[in-house]
Amino acid sequence: MTTTLSLLTPSGRLTLGNLLGALRPMAERQGPTDDRARYGISDLHAMTTPHDPALLRTRTRELMTLLLAAGLDRATLFRQSAVPAHTGLAYLLECTAHTGELNRMIQFKEKGRGVPSTRCSLFTYPVLMAADILLHRPAQVPVGDDQRQHVELTRDLALRFNATYGPVFTVPEVVTPAAGARVMDLAEPTRKMSKSVEGPGSILLLDPPDVVRRKVARAVTDSDTGPDAVRADREAKPGVTNLIDVLVACGGSAEGLTTYGALKAAVTDAVVAVLEPLQKRYVDLAADPVHVDDVFARGSARCRELTEPVLADARTAMGL
Ligand code: ATP
Ligand code: MG
After folding, report:
1. What pLDDT is recorded for position 182?
2. What is the ipTM of this complex?
């Protein structure tokens, strides 16, 4: 039985992209029992750029509640900061990683290299991510293209550690999930919808129906008014293609639709139909924060049990 691990960072409010591209497949990967699927909130990763403590707390709570509302209740749910082995192993891996390889990380290059006030944690973030992964010994790590370089680093660190100190870590295989839903921003359909970029082109999971309607109505399309204007063509019609993809991913069909108005109405209905039950569960769960806390407290305790021996092996191998 293989372990599957996914972490979500409370760097913003979850979007429709996160639901279709992450939460849904995560729900499908849950086994009949827990421990096989371990899903964490990587709150420590939300501190690599200037952050507001109160906002981090609010977003973390919202994310905890949303994970349960999305039906991930058969997984072991935990908070990274509640499992000290994550930071414990990160330090040991910092003693394995080279500054040269971290300096080449694309996210560091884009977000902070050369800026004196860049947090050190932005530089070492990929090492903490390697620790997140290696502690749980998953055979495979499903990641999108944007995280591929980080998982390659994780493999390199695991191989180097094992070769230098002995076989402690499973070297995970990187798997790219079958071309899954990649939801693009409605206002800028050539870039993906991201939770850290809030704007009119992002549908949030907790957006009420009228907000969804407004955002979809304002979605960028094109000036094509031909009889076959509603068709997928990622190069020439990125906005329309994205709307069709969202419609299909939410259980609808663009067949027979000839105008953008009709397409947008269908997209709104389909998205609202997907979000409504999730939002209902969210409201119920949010009314019982003690239950939500309890689920994460139990999951975090279980993860402490599961990860302590791995950290202990690594410490012993390194001479501690
Ligand atoms: P950030 O802006 O902080 O990077 P994000 O929305 O890109 O936020 P991540 O935390 O990077 O979210 O990724 C969480 C999960 O959501 C990953 O599995 C990622 O592949 C998935 N995901 C993120 N954005 C999309 C999207 N637009 N379409 C499909 N899946 C997405
Ligand atoms: Mg991202």
Report:
1. 87
2. 0.98
b/e map 27-37, b = 16+ CB within 10 Å: bebbeeebbbb
Check whether domain 209-283 has CATH 3.40.50.620, yes or no: no
Task: Using DSSP, state whether 40 is helix, strand or coil.
Answer: strand
Query: Which of 230-234's residues contact partners 24+ apart within 8 Å by CB, and which partners?
Result: 230/254, 230/257, 230/258, 230/259, 230/260, 230/262, 230/263
Residue ranges of domains in the chain:
4-181+288-317, 209-283
Ligand 1 atom with minimal separation from the 193 CA:
27
- Token pair listed for 225: 């008014």
The CATH architecture assigned to 4-181+288-317 reads 3-Layer(aba) Sandwich (3.40)
Radius of gyration of the chain from its Cα atoms, rounded to whole angstroms:
21
Q: Nearest C-alpha to atom 18 of ligand 1 is from which residue?
A: 22
Instruction: Tell me the pTM.
Output: 0.93
pLDDT at 144: 73
- Give the closest residue (by CA) to ligand 1 atom 26: 17
Say if 4-181+288-317 and 209-283 have the same CATH topology. no
Ligand 1 centre and the CA of 146: distance in Å?
9
